[in-house]
Amino acid sequence: MNMVYMIGTTELLVIGLVVLLFFGGKKIPELMKGLGKGVKSFKDGMNGVGEETKDETEEKEN
User: What are phi and psi of 11, to 5 degrees?
Assistant: First the structure.
């Protein structure tokens, strides 16, 4: 039953084709750049939360 929700190669190709048709070839690099910045920001935020948690734990131990 869980296999129904997995995305295969065909589905990825169809999604890619729809994105290409919708945005056009010139906009794709801009979209990927924005997506990359968003992922980097998210990772930086998650690292910040981890460091804050670590700092709070060290303060409680002292």
Answer: -65, -40
**Closest Cα to residue 16, out of 39, 5, 32?**
32
SS3 14: helix
pTM of the entire structure? 0.50
Taking the CA atoms of residue 42, residue 43, residue 44 and residue 50 in that order, the dihedral angle to the nearest 10 degrees is 110
**Residue 44, both tokens:** 């930086």
Gap between the Cα atoms of 41 and 20, Å rounded = 25
Residue with tokens 């296999």, as numbered in its chain: 3
- pLDDT, tens only, 1-55: 456 677 788 888 998 888 888 888 788 888 889 889 999 988 888 887 777 777 6
CA–CA separation, 32 and 52 (whole Å): 30
